[in-house]
Amino acid sequence: MSHIDDQLDAIIDAHLRYLEGDGPAPDLTTLAPELRGEALARVQLLEASWGAALEVPTGAPVARRFGFDRAGQTITVNGRRVAQLRKATGMEFDTLLGLVTAAGGDITAANLFRLEQNSSADVAQPTASAIVAALHTTLADIETTTTSAATDPVRLFLSGPRFADMIDDWAGRFGRPASEVRTTVTERVLAVQYRAEDVTEEHLIEIVQTILNSLEP
């Protein structure tokens, strides 16, 4: 487990004690900027699964990442992408099931198995959000969408080898977990509004490099 994972686990433990009335809420403002966003996202997901009232602006990056801005909706998930992400991290099927249910997802082993065999499966928003949290990814990365021709090349680039090489190279140089860097950069790339004439690999590489530069310590 990485030092960052240790810090995040300590924050979640402290926030659990806070929700149980056994201590103050952890102070996220003292965290390094690159850790603060991930800690806030996990705390908000914990509160959502705990049943606490959340007031997350629908346009906030955290809300978009986890799908909090789509409460009450059914979300169509690409289960094969879920399986791909799970296997890429070396996560066992039972581990994913446990993490999803612990985070408030309502899914059985049989249903998760069927989901992983299907490129288009409807799940409730809380379950989709829990899957996102368990895999340290974004909703956009596992959602089955009917995107326009202008946005298809963006998702194609984000799942391709050039993007993976850029993330791995940057993460290695700065000692950051590649999965966390990938999640952050993917979210920011998908938040950009594109013109059809700009969606070229060169343009996307430039955007990714600009985002990576902004993450440098």
What does this molecule look like?
By secondary structure, the chain is mostly helical. The protein has 3 domains: 3-55, no CATH class; 70-142, Orthogonal Bundle (434 Repressor (Amino-terminal Domain)); 152-215. It is built from 12 helices and 2 strands, in the order αααβαααβαααααα. The protein has a two-stranded antiparallel ribbon. The longest helix has 18 residues, at 33-50. The two termini are 22 Å apart.
List keywords for this structure.
434 Repressor (Amino-terminal Domain), two-stranded antiparallel ribbon, 3 domains
Note the gap between the termini: 22 Å
Low-confidence stretches: 51-59, 147-151
Which strand-content bin applies to the residues?
A: under 5%
Strand order within the widest beta sheet? 1-2
Q: Outline, from the CA principal axes?
A: globular
Helix share bin: 55-70%
Order of helices and strands: HHHEHHHEHHHHHH
Please specify the SSE layout and strand pairing.
Elements: H1 3-19, H2 33-50, H3 61-66, E1 74-77, H4 79-88, H5 93-102, H6 109-116, E2 121-124, H7 125-135, H8 139-142, H9 152-158, H10 161-174, H11 178-191, H12 201-215
Antiparallel strand pairs: 1-2
Helix pairs in contact: 1-2, 2-7, 4-6, 5-7, 10-11, 10-12
Summarize the structure.
62% of the residues lie in helices and 4% in strands. The chain is mainly α and 217 residues long.
